[in-house]
Amino acid sequence: MAEILGLGVTHYPPLSGTDDNLTRVFRGALADPRLPAELRDPASWPERARREWADDEGVAAGKAHRAALLEGFRRTRAALDEFRPDVVLIWGDDQYENFREDLVPPYAVLAYEDKVVHPWRHADESSNMKGKPNVWGEGEDTARTIRGHRPFARHLVEGLMNCGVDVPYAYEPLHHPGFAHAFLNTVLYLDYDRQGFDYPVVAFPLNCYGRKVISYQGNISPLGVERELDPPSPSPSRIMDVGAAVARICADSPYRVALVASSSWSHSFLVDSTFRLFPDSAADERMYDALVTGDHSVWEHTTLEDAEKAGQQELLNWWALVGAMRELGVAPSWTTFAASNIFVSNKVFAIYDGAAR
């Protein structure tokens, strides 16, 4: 039987920028004219937000948050290097990037060959970093090759179809010239120290933004803006089933596979109960506790409506990983929770090693 490594990371776009970009989303929310006046006063904020904002408006906290994220990425990269996968499958979201009005699948397998990408030339489509300096000082001419693994992708699609998961696939991109930012940023951050990333990648996009993927283009919107919503995302329990099916197929394959969930957790700009200023940290802490203790019932019985209310749309990527690891009977060997109120979201890292069948 094949060996499988499970990893959970984030693709938080501001991490690719300089430190002065880390509070950009929070400052934008503070400037929203419909924000209640009392929420402009730090005295009304949660304790963590006040502590992070401090007297330097988040500068010191931003450096500490970046350091925590880099520790998570370096640890997960070390686990990846030790495992030496034949292929890295990444579950990530597509925020009106490759999939738009003409096609919005619930999920898909991108069976690309090797692809040359330009992270900063296509920054509007991938990371909302167009015109902003990046932490590596790389220019628009910067190119890198992300290797593909079409034989594995074909094997996966056939296996999913045979077990009742009717999954679309693609050999070439539709609207995005490279990879949506969930996938590209995952590679960029796992290679934050620029040592190279030669592992083949198969992207497995999920329609995490569902009702807001076309109507709001999966992006930030001002308070008070109401639009006709789109059909919903797949349910968390369905995505867990898909993750489990992927795990079974990988376990019975000849490949060493790293299964990676890439997303931050609750996003402030999706949480109406906090006027889109703060993430729903209580909801995140509940899910994290269930992750650590192996209480899969909490994950399985959280509804899509619960996730949407908590701004946890992107957590569907982790639902796939949790479903896969439950199927394999593997618990996380290491996790960490990088909490934040003013840097858009809480972030979680996890390693599931020894996931062999």
CATH architecture descriptor text: 3-Layer(aba) Sandwich
Strand content: 5-15%
What is the oligomer described by this structure?
Answer: single chain
State the CATH superfamily name. Answer: LigB-like
Trace the largest sheet across and list its strands.
7-2-8-1-10-9
Number of strands: 10
From the spread of the alpha carbons, the general shape counts as globular
Structural class label = alpha/beta
Helix content: 25-40%
Biggest sheet architecture: 6 strands, mixed
For the record, give the distance between the C-alpha atoms at the N and C termini, rounded to a whole number.
Answer: 5 Å
> Tell me, what is the CATH class?
Alpha Beta
CATH topology: Protocatechuate 4,5-dioxygenase, Chain B
Using only C-alpha atoms, the radius of gyration works out to: 19 Å
**Average pLDDT metric:** 97
User: Which segments are poorly predicted (pLDDT under 50) over 5 or more consecutive residues?
Assistant: none
How many domains comprise the coordinates? 1
What's the total helix number?
11
What letter string, H or E per element, gives the SSE order? EHHHEEEHEHEHEHEHHHHEE
Pfam families: LigB
Protein name: Extradiol ring-cleavage dioxygenase class III protein subunit B
Organism: Pseudonocardia dioxanivorans (strain ATCC 55486 / DSM 44775 / JCM 13855 / CB1190)
Keywords: Dioxygenase, Oxidoreductase
Model description:
This protein has 357 residues and is of the alpha/beta class. It has one domain: Protocatechuate 4,5-dioxygenase, Chain B. Helices cover 34% and strands 14% of the residues. The chain has helices at 24-30, 47-53, 59-83, 123-126, 150-162, 181-190, 236-251, 281-293, 296-301, 304-309, 316-328, and strands spanning 3-9, 87-93, 109-110, 115-117, 144-146, 169-170, 201-206, 257-262, 334-338, 347-356. It has a six-stranded mixed beta sheet with strand order 7-2-8-1-10-9, sandwiched between helices. It has a two-stranded parallel sheet with strand order 3-6. Strands 4-5 form a two-stranded antiparallel sheet. Helix 5 (150-162) crosses helix 7 (236-251) and helix 7 crosses helix 11 (316-328). The protein is globular, with a radius of gyration of 19 Å.
